[in-house]
Amino acid sequence: MLQDCGLKIPCFDTSEDISLEETDPDQIRMLFEIAGSMHIPFVAVCALTDCEIQVKHFLDEVLPDAADKKVTLLIKTSGIFANTGRLRSLLDEYACDELGCLWDVHHPYRDFGESPDSTIR
Predict the structure, then answer these.
(1) Are 105 and 119 in contact (CB under 8 A)?
(2) d(Cα 102, Cα 62) in Å, to the nearest integer?
(3) From residue 23, how far is each of 45, 55, 58, 117 by CA, in Å?
(4) N or C of the chain: less Cβ packing under 10 Å?
(5) Residue 53's CB: how many other CB atoms inside 10 A?
(6) Side-chain half-sphere of 30: how many Cα atoms within 13 Å?
(7) Residues of the chain with pLDDT under 50
(8) pTM of the model
């Protein structure tokens, strides 16, 4: 019905925290499946606790599924990745089309004192 009206949903936004060990990768895989079937290009998650090892483990597990469904997983710039340098390092490490970020310009400023100029660079 939305397509018939010329409307598109650009992103499924979630409150799934991929820095927590108990976060179920199957929940994200289900969203990839739905997003792919509805031609929604993005699914967004967050990482609120300082456990980057868990984040990387989670990404290693789900990014192949994102590629399979032609969906990009976005990490929100809140929590530990409101620090733009830290987020940039993670994105550089993975450097793939299946991982990106959902920029919230407020959190880098509020939580880490970044200037907008610094965040944009």
Answers:
(1) yes
(2) 18
(3) 11, 10, 9, 34
(4) N
(5) 9
(6) 6
(7) none
(8) 0.91
**DSSP one-letter string for the chain:** -TGGGT----EEEEEEETTSTT--HHHHHHHHHHHHHTT--EEEEE--SS-HHHHHHHHHHHHHHHHHHT-EEEEESSGGGGSHHHHHHHHHHH-STTEEEE--SHHHHHHH---HHHHH-
The set of long-range contacts for 25-32, using a CB threshold of 8 Å and a minimum separation of 24, is 25/58, 25/61, 25/62, 28/62, 28/65, 28/73, 29/62, 29/65, 32/62, 32/65, 32/66, 32/68, 32/69, 32/71
